[in-house]
Design goal:
This protein is mainly β. It has one domain: Coagulation Factor XIII, Chain A, domain 1, CATH 2.70.50. It has two helices and 14 strands. Strands 3, 5, 8, 10, 11 and 12 form a six-stranded mixed sheet that branches. The longest helix is centred in the N-terminal third of the chain and has 16 residues. The chain is globular. It starts with a helix and ends with a strand.
């Protein structure tokens, strides 16, 4: 009887050790480019290597769509509920200079928090087995509009966003990702090195949230994203 209890306690301990708070069980796998229908696909979506941001777009929030991977194995069975699925609730964004220091920013005459914490939401399922992690995508407002405006003086340079996601497992354990470093080139104006703008009077047919950022090279010439005004 004592032996049976000891085995049960040992199994419970091993199970708990597999679910402790850490930043390695769930990871950010990259920044995903939306497809032609503005769908973010964590499994097949194209990963980007660098971002671009035009700081001259008024009221512009810089959004980043991230792929997520959860390698913690599922605990669900016929007699127990799943506890290793993850609910992301927020993102912490550090804004770094090219040399790695946090950039001091001024908003409305006062020092702005850096890192900044923003709301974010995603559900990441647990892994079915060691070869099949749970995957999901999340779109994060990585730079609120006031922060984009504060960066206008740095146009022509580059920043790096250190992105960390935080949340809880369904078993109520705190969890966070490691810091994912995302370089962003800053630009201003309409040119091939900046971002795509529609001409005055035309309407923008690309994903509205992504206007003024990231992928001018992805816009096919045979499928214009700007619609001329009706005559």
């Amino acid at each position: 009887m004592n032996k049976r209890i000891s085995i049960a306690l040992f199994s419970t301990l091993i199970s708990l050790l597999g679910c402790v708070d850490n930043n390695s069980s769930i990871t950010i796998t990259g920044v995903i480019q939306p497809d032609s229908e503005c769908i973010i696909d964590p499994a097949a979506g194209l990963r980007m290597s660098v971002g671009r941001l035009s700081t001259d777009v008024d009221n512009k929030t810089y959004y980043v769509s991230l792929g997520l991977s959860n390698r913690v194995l599922t605990t669900s069975s016929a007699v127990s509920a799943e506890t290793n699925d993850v609910q992301i609730s927020a993102a912490e964004i550090g804004i770094y200079s090219p040399t790695g220091e946090l950039i001091p920013l001024n908003i409305g005459g006062a020092a702005a928090p850096n890192p900044v914490r923003v709301g974010a939401s995603a559900y990441v399922p647990s892994a079915r087995d060691t070869e099949s992690p749970g995957v999901a995508a999340i779109t994060v407002p990585a730079l609120p509009a006031s922060y984009v405006a504060a960066l206008r003086g740095l146009t022509g340079g580059q920043i790096t966003l250190g992105i960390r996601l935080v949340g809880k497992t369904l078993g109520d354990l705190d969890i966070e990702t490691g810091e994912y470093m995302w370089p962003v080139e800053l630009c201003n104006g309409i040119n091939n090195n900046c971002v795509f703008f529609c001409a005055e009077g035309e309407t923008d047919d690309i994903c509205l949230d992504y206007f003024g950022q990231d992928f001018p090279q992805s816009i096919p010439l045979e499928d214009p994203v700007c619609t001329p005004p009706e005559s």
